[in-house]
Amino acid sequence: MSKNPAVRLSSILVVGLCLSLGWGIRGNFGHEYGAAFAGALGAIAACLVSGREDWRKRVVYFALFGALGWGFGGSISYMKVIGYTHSGHAPTQFYGFICLAYIGFLWAALGGAGTALPAVADADRLTRFFRPLLFVFAAWGLLAAFQDPIARALQAVPGGFDDRWHRHENPLYWLDADYLPAFTALAALCVYDLVSRRSWNIVLLPLFGAAGYYAGWGVQELLRMQGLDAAVGAALTMPLGDPELFDPELLMTNWPQFFHDYPQHIGWLVGLIAGIGAYFALFGKFRDGASLFVHMAVGWIVFFLIFPVLGSLLFRDLGGFRMTPPRSDDWAGITGVFVGMAIWMCRNGLPQVAFASIVSGSIGAIGFSGAQFLKLMAIAPGNPARLRMQGITPEGAPAAYEEAVSAWSAWHAQNWHSFLEQTYGFINGLAIAIALACLVRRTAGRDDIPAERRWTGAFAAMFVLVLLPFLNLQKNVKAWSEQLDPAVWFRTLDVHGVSLQVPALWPVPYLGYLPGYEHFAMTPQAWYGLSWLLIAIVFIFAAARHLARPLPLLPASALGRGQLLLLALMWGMVIGNFERALPGWHPVRLLTEWGVFASAILATLIILLAPREHEDVVVDPHASFAGKCWAAWSVGLAVVLVLASAFHYGNRMVYGDEHSGHSSRELRFGPEAGWRVDPVLKQSEHK
């Protein structure tokens, strides 16, 4: 039997390098879009080294779905979990390593699922996902445009909020979580179902909505008349903090702020949502793969309600069923996304995707907790915590203490968080490489994309090469404005006697400098957006031309096109990342920017030389995955728990009860737990 090209050392190494450098860049841009970029790079690399010509023809689909899969984990809060492992408090540290493993699992599991989907799904099913996906993207675009105006219109208390330090003043704030994208995605899928189904029973939708509306309103009115509304509300509400230490009126709760500002509207609103949901549960068809996204969105909502919202009522003395209070509880929603995805895949004949997801997730779990352990070991030499354990203190042995600390000060000044990110990213790459390698010879040959849906490939390429870089690199403008000449980037306005600093207006060349035409000007952010809009327009025209008659620029071979896609995306983001860092350059940035640059050079060399144009890959299309998911789950869970526990105890052996530094001291349990002594208070900054 022929060898599996995906298990060659060069193949595994290049996937690891791509995700590592992508993860290093993700650390600068953050959140979902940064993780999506890293996921796209890893997916492209895994596709190219597979040796499967049919996979390589789908490289843009690997990039798109790999990006979407990895993007989900970008919403999960984890910095406090890292702080837990540094704390020196044994229960908190053990909890920290277990939670890092759990976050790592969720992140890599959904990344593995997204990357595996184009390898497993037939062309008809794969391309049918795009229409409902476009509805979801459109809904998210509308949410981004109108969320803040709606929230400000609903704000009952005079004042303002921002997206960072006063985000909890937003009436739509709910446990610092991104629940609105889940709800809007579900709403968009319902609209798609109505459009695609075009059934007579659409006339029943207003009836179901009205029935739910009046039922919810009636229940609330009945409770009010019986004097039970306050008791029910108290039973379902939990203050997020210790009411013995803080005024309960200043504490946030486990429900949206909107519920507290407008309690009279809760009944009909919940009833309306329930009525509409009942209609779609009875009549919805959710064709073209929309049911997958429904499973994921409903999973997000259900698990979020079960764990941090209602589950917290059972864990009041522990600050609720929350991972990192007072930070985001997106971990619960993403758990629901994973469960919904896995159920759908197994029910719809794609257990290979679920299997790859579990394999990738298990390795990712080990990777996140393991990379953090490696970082803690690396900062041990000359660490004041270690010196105190050895009896070398500023009071008892000042000379020895100062000598040791001084000798290792430059070592400790390195960007160790970037070390953690790039190491974890490399292990994530190994997770994808191994998960996809398991499928190379166990999935049937994939057919070509239907001619009538070739536009999906063009859309996937535009998403990866234009939209994804823009969503990340637009953040450069803010970084530049904070570090370059403020007179160029800002202007000061006097509003009712208060000086406000707002973005500058840069005139249109020539036209904006004519007398009386000063209004032809835009903010730096608008100029940046316009530049990318022009790029998008060129891309759309070029793609349309290519679909009609192939462009000479693009290689004829699938491998060549994939290599061009990878190098264009990778080097575009490497350069954009360097542009972001350059205005505030410091030698400590070498660990990140130069490390990313060096990794990109090595990855370029391998991706150009290692993949072969023609590989003799023997495929067994009848390979069974029955039982493999449960076996992978059982083995993965056992290994993750054992290793996460080993990382905890190894850390305890080195640092004992001392706080290891390089992070704030975060406690999850005990009388000094962060949720108890340092909660989020209304009218104060978020933690």
Describe the structure.
By secondary structure, the protein is mainly α. Among the domains are: 128-240 and 252-301, no CATH class; 486-522, no CATH class. Helices cover 64% and strands 2% of the residues. The protein contains 28 helices and 4 strands. It has helices at 9-29, 31-48, 53-56, 59-73, 79-86, 90-120, 123-128, 130-154, 179-197, 204-225, 229-236, 257-261, 266-283, 290-310, 330-347, 351-378, 384-389, 398-407, 409-412, 416-440, 455-473, 475-483, 486-489, 524-548, 558-581, 593-609, 628-655, 674-677, and strands at residues 490-495, 498-503, 506-507, 521-522. The strands form 2 sheets. A two-stranded antiparallel sheet has the order 1-2. A two-stranded antiparallel sheet has the order 3-4. Helix 6 (90-120) runs parallel beside helix 15. The longest helix is centred in the N-terminal third of the chain and has 31 residues, at 90-120. The radius of gyration is 27 Å and the shape is globular. The termini are far apart.
Give me the oligomer status: single chain
Low-confidence stretches: none
The proportion of strand residues reads under 5%
The percentage helix is 55-70%
Which secondary-structure class do the elements indicate? mainly alpha
In round numbers, the mean pLDDT is 93
The description of the largest β-sheet is: 2 strands, antiparallel
Widest β-sheet, arrangement of strands: 1-2
Q: How many helices does DSSP assign?
A: 28
**Rg, Å, rounded:** 27 Å
> How far apart are the first and last residues' alpha carbons, in Å?
58 Å
Per the principal axes of the C-alpha atoms, what is the gross shape? globular
β-strand number? 4
